[in-house]
Amino acid sequence: MTISFDLSGKTAIVTGANTGLGQAIAVALAGAGADVALVGRSSMEETETAISAQGRGKCLTIQADLSTVAPVQGVIDQTVAWAGRADILVNNAGIIRRADAVDFTEADWDAVMDVNLKTVFFLSQAFARQLLGKSQPGKIINIASLLSFQGGIRIPSYTASKSGLAGLTRLLACEWAGKGINVNAIAPGYFETNNTEALRNDPDRNSSILGRIPAGHWGRPEELGGAAVFLASAASDYVHGIVLPVDGGWLAR
Ligand code: NAD
């Protein structure tokens, strides 16, 4: 048996691919040979440039605000119209709102749950429907968090959404594993992106987080690429329903 991480001939959809972890994942999947639909609200120029500089994988930009489920079917349809197929879905787009639980607003609760959990479910459903209709295998990779395992502080809707996402990953894996769709998640540790800017700018939080990471540094987005390629490739065909930490050893501590 040859173990293959090659994604040639596959088409991936990556949400929130303009920056941070989504950008790094899109670049890594393209580097492994996939064509990639870059989905999000913002310009994808930087990601497109990085992919074309690599010289592997072509890309398409799809404008979509994932704070509602309205664009979900269009994302799948546009991808299939462009590439003739959609094999891999990376649910990466996500937001965070910070406030003490005692002050937390309903608006901040709903905004986070809508992007991080509701849209993820309905996009996964639309993605799976087009695969199941053709009995075609596929891969779904949800971007979870250490807050899928831990409580955290001052981020109640984020923790609820990411803990919910771990459960949803397991449920979808149970329903679709027998139908050729792998559903798994990656739990990034503390990475240098917009999402963690507030923490990195707070000297106390920065040093306490850094001091607890066995690897001794904040994650660099490109350090997530290997896990994404693994879960997108044939190498993970018998892997279902896991939440894979890529955290510099944080959870081992
Ligand atoms: P980021 O803020 O740089 O990226 C978030 C992405 O989501 C952006 O591309 C943004 O445009 C997109 N997005 C947000 N709301 C959207 C909407 N309504 N419609 C379309 N796109 C939208 O942060 P990041 O760290 O790259 O986050 C990516 C994912 O990784 C998120 O799900 C986040 O929760 C998760 N994560 C990040 C870390 C970390 O340390 N950075 C750790 C654990 C999990």
Q: How do you describe this structure in short?
A:
The protein is α/β, with parallel strands linked by helices and 253 residues long.
Question: Can you give a write-up of this model?
Answer:
This protein has a seven-stranded parallel β-sheet, with helices on both faces. It is 42% helix and 15% strand. The chain has helices at residues 20-31, 45-54, 72-83, 106-132, 156-176, 197-201, 203-212, 225-232; strands spanning 11-15, 35-40, 59-63, 88-91, 138-143, 181-188, 243-246. It is built from eight helices and seven strands. It is globular and about 50 Å long. Nicotinamide-adenine-dinucleotide binds at residues 16, 18-22, 40-42, 65-67, 92-95, 115, 143, 145, 188, 190-191, 193-196. Residues 16, 18-22, 40-42, 65-67, 92-95, 115, 143, 145, 188, 190-191, 193-196 line the site of nicotinamide-adenine-dinucleotide.
Q: Output the helix-strand order.
A: EHEHEHEHEHEHHHE
Number of domains: 1
Radius of gyration: 17 Å
Number of helices: 8
Low-confidence stretches: none
* Structural class by SSE content: alpha/beta
Using the 3D structure, state the CATH architecture: 3-Layer(aba) Sandwich
Average pLDDT number: 97
Q: Kindly identify the CATH topology.
A: Rossmann fold
Keywords:
7 strands, binds nicotinamide-adenine-dinucleotide, Rossmann fold, alpha/beta, 8 helices, 253 residues, 15% strand, 42% helix, seven-stranded parallel β-sheet
